[in-house]
Design brief:
The protein is mainly beta. Helices cover about 0% and strands about 45% of the residues. Strands 7-34-33-32 form a four-stranded antiparallel sheet, with no helix packed on it. The chain has a four-stranded antiparallel sheet with strand order 8-9-10-11, with no helix packed on it. Strands 12-13-14-15 form a four-stranded antiparallel sheet, with no helix packed on it.
Length: about 500
């Protein structure tokens, strides 16, 4: 099965720095598919395309791993400082909020070669806004305490008029982890403007009832109404084709390395989603874990009623990822979907038989899983009208500058993977380092183990049957890729050596 980018819709996630644990950034595509059509993806190494004008910003050739037919290109880099969320203007140009410079930058591909050759600052003074939206010819920028409206663009599309559109958005810190990013979503069908307003703390009894929530406004910015509560930081917002509001939600810290999971859920008006009392399927927080949680004691009768009535999320994502950006979904060939994000890779989520399954879609950004080194950190995600995917990286390191990347699909370059590859699975044993591979295609020519940079660290003997053991015990802890070579290309599987 070829996955067409026009079927991929979405949101995104950003890394969350939590005490004692540094979390990876991962971008996730959410793709709703029927059980009959959903098939495992096989990733192939693909060199990152770096146009000549951007090669000075990269000291080595990077490799990404994508399904057959997809390629990744540096769309623009060089002048951006902290590119976050993106939006398309009326002419289809990619525009990005550069939060650190309080500007909005339009990237223009004047010769239609898939690379932006012009960067124009179209709005200034956004007060560090990380999300932007175009609506009825105006540009909106959501800062932490207010939202700005930019109007009256000149002939070059540069906005000169700036007005405060919404003011008084809760922004006073109350404790640790004050969440200052705000996300906007216009819904013309209901004449609504939805805004996510994160909590003022990691875990506390909030004083401002409009915090840790999604607030609904009229599209003219009037009449704020609490739409849904108990959402610690619902940065990712989207509407599906039926008009249902969805959100991705960054959950709290200090409840465990793998709990609580982040939320991907439909948002119902008036519903309570658990924060700061409980998470998941009515699981109470451990209030004895530290002083911040203990400060919420004692638990009241009203607390018990709220938790009993809390809305259970539709799906969850890896713990300790913070949701960012969103793309309004569209419908294609009867398939609905959403795009979200979480860690140093892009992942496809599919709904199969009523349950959610995760598959890698694009990997290779992480170069050192022990020290969390990466050459890009996906943040905002955008889908254009032609089905191209753009993602921003706000990461600065010796190996890269903040950039916008473009993933495109060309059916002419697609090579069908080995049909038996769908049956291949790996079962790693973190204690012994032995990986059991099963469902191996009979036409395997070689097996190599590579690090995230693509360098071979181990060559395994060719298996003689459908089951095979790969001994990784001599390798240090980290992330590796097991590459099975067949006459039709590579079959790549990721393994984490703990």
């Amino acid at each position: 099965m070829h996955v067409n980018v026009s079927d991929i819709l979405g949101m995104s996630l950003q890394s969350n720095e939590v005490p004692m644990q540094r979390v990876l950034l991962l971008t996730i595509f959410l793709f709703a598919a029927s059980a009959a059509s959903a098939q495992p993806l096989v990733l192939f190494p693909s060199p990152l395309i770096i146009p000549p004008q951007f090669q000075k910003y990269y000291d080595s050739a990077e490799t990404v791993y994508l399904p057959t037919g997809f390629t990744a290109t540096v769309y623009y880099t060089g002048t951006l400082v902290s590119p976050r969320f993106m939006a398309l203007d009326s002419e289809g140009n990619v525009c990005v909020a550069d939060g650190s410079t309080s500007t909005v930058v339009r990237l223009v591909d004047t010769n239609n070669d898939g690379v932006a050759d012009t960067a124009i600052t179209i709005a200034t003074g956004t007060d560090g806004a990380e999300d932007i939206a175009f609506h009825h010819g105006d540009l909106f920028a959501a800062a932490s305490g207010q939202t700005y409206k930019y109007s009256a663009p000149d002939a070059r599309g540069i906005f000169s008029a700036r007005d405060v559109f919404i003011m008084g958005i809760g922004n006073a810190p109350q404790g640790t982890d004050n969440h200052t990013s705000r996300t906007l979503l216009f819904d013309d069908h209901s004449n609504s403007l939805f805004m996510s307003v994160g909590s003022p703390c990691d875990a506390c009894r909030e004083l401002d009832t409009m915090r840790a929530s999604i607030v609904r406004y009229n599209q003219d910015g009037t009449d704020p109404t609490l739409f849904a509560s108990g959402l610690r930081n619902a940065v990712g917002l989207a509407l599906d084709s039926s008009g249902q509001l969805w959100a991705t939600v960054a959950e709290r810290n200090n409840q465990g390395a793998d709990t609580p999971a982040e939320l991907l859920t439909g948002i119902e008006q008036g519903a309570f989603y658990g924060w700061p009392l409980a998470f998941g399927n009515h699981t109470w927080d451990d209030f004895e874990i530290d002083s911040e949680y203990r400060a919420m004691l004692p638990i009241t009768h009203e607390d018990s009623i709220r938790v009993a009535d809390m809305r259970v999320p539709d799906a969850t994502i890896a713990a300790h990822s913070t949701t960012m950006n969103r793309i309004r979904p569209h419908k294609c060939d009867g398939t609905d979907g959403r795009l979200i994000a979480n860690g140093s890779k892009i992942v496809l989520l599919q709904k199969i038989g009523g349950a959610w399954a995760t598959q890698n879609f694009c990997t290779g950004f992480l170069t050192d899983s022990i020290h969390y080194l990466r050459w890009a950190r996906p943040c905002g995600i955008l889908l254009d009208h032609r089905g191209n995917i753009y993602f921003s990286s706000d990461h600065t390191s010796p190996h890269s500058t903040p950039a916008i990347f473009r993933i495109s699909y060309d059916a002419a370059n697609a090579v069908a993977p080995d049909p038996i590859a769908a049956q291949l699975s790996l079962s790693p044993n973190p204690t012994t380092g032995i990986v059991l591979a099963s469902g191996i295609p009979t036409n395997i020519e070689s097996i190599v183990v590579t690090n995230p940079l693509g360098a071979t660290v181990l060559e395994a003997r060719t298996p003689q049957g459908p089951r095979f053991e790969i001994d990784l015990s001599a390798l240090p802890a980290g992330t590796y890729f097991v590459r099975f070579q067949t006459p039709r290309g590579f079959i790549t599987k990721k393994v984490i050596r703990e």
